[in-house]
C-alpha cells in the first residue's frame, strides 16, 4: 500500500471516521475513499452499501472487480441514566457488538452491583463527555426523566450529529424538552431527529421490552443512516 494512502487511512480511523480501502483486482490500483467522497454509478452504490453494512467484500462495477476493505469506527451507545432499562440495554448491546457506557451522577443508581462488567461512570454527563466526546458513530440514549441530567448531553448529541438520539418520556414531557432545546439554540429540524417516545413502537411495557425497542431503533438508524454528503 502506498505510504500516503496508509497515512490517510490511519488518520481517518484515528479520528473515528468511516473509510474504505478500494482495490481494483484487475490492475492492483487502489485508493482510499472517505465517507462523503463522490463515487458515481454502480461502484458508488456498492461503496454506499459497504459504508452502511460495515462488511468488506468484492463488488463488480463497470466490467471491473474491486475489493472493498471497510473500516468503520466501532459504534458506541452512551446511556444517560443508570435505570432498570439501562441494565437490560447494556447487556443486550454487548451481545449485539456495541461498545456501551452508562453515565449517571446519582450514586444510588450508578453502582457496580447493578452494572457489573459495564463501563459505568457516576458523574455529571457534561463533565464525562468533555473527555469522551460524542460523534457520528455514537448513539445517545437519555432515560433519567431529569432535565438537569438529560438536556446537556441531548444538546451535545444534536451538535455532534450522533447517528441516533433517543429520549424517554411522554409526548407532553417531550414537548417541554423541545422548548428547552429550542432555547439552547437548536432548530426544529435538529430537534426532530430525537426519537421520542424512545424506541421502536412495538408495544413495549417492561424495562427489558423497552430496551429491546431501543436497541432495535438504534440498529435501524445505524444501518439505514444517511451517509455524509448525501441527502437524508
From TrEMBL:
Transmembrane segments: none
Residues annotated as signal peptide: none
Pfam families in alphabetical order: XdhC_C
InterPro entries, per database record: MoCofactor_Util/Proc, XdhC_Rossmann_dom
Name of protein: Xanthine dehydrogenase accessory factor
Domain XdhC Rossmann: 77-218
Amino acid at each position: 500500500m502506498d505510504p500516503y494512502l496508509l497515512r490517510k487511512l490511519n488518520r481517518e480511523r484515528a479520528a473515528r471516521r468511516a473509510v474504505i480501502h478500494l482495490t481494483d483486482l484487475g490492475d492492483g490500483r487502489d485508493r482510499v475513499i472517505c465517507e462523503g467522497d463522490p463515487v458515481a454509478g454502480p461502484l458508488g452504490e456498492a461503496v454506499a452499501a459497504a459504508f452502511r453494512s460495515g462488511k468488506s467484500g468484492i463488488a463488480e462495477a463497470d466490467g471491473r472487480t474491486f475489493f472493498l476493505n471497510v473500516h468503520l469506527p466501532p459504534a458506541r451507545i452512551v446511556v444517560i441514566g443508570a435505570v432498570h432499562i439501562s441494565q437490560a440495554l447494556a447487556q443486550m448491546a454487548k451481545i449485539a457488538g456495541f461498545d456501551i457506557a452508562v453515565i449517571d451522577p446519582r450514586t444510588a443508581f450508578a453502582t457496580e452491583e447493578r452494572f457489573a462488567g459495564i463501563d459505568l461512570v457516576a458523574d455529571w454527563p457534561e463533565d464525562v463527555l468533555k473527555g469522551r466526546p460524542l460523534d457520528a458513530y455514537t448513539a445517545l440514549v437519555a432515560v433519567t426523566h431529569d432535565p438537569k441530567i438529560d438536556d446537556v448531553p441531548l444538546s451535545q448529541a444534536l451538535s455532534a450529529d450522533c447517528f441516533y438520539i433517543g429520549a424517554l418520556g411522554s409526548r407532553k414531557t417531550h414537548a417541554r424538552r423541545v422548548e428547552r432545546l429550542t432555547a439552547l439554540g437548536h432548530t426544529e429540524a435538529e430537534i426532530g431527529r430525537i426519537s421520542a417516545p424512545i424506541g421502536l413502537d412495538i408495544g413495549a411495557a417492561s424495562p427489558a421490552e423497552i430496551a429491546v425497542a431501543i436497541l432495535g431503533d438504534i440498529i435501524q438508524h445505524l444501518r439505514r443512516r444517511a451517509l455524509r454528503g448525501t441527502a437524508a
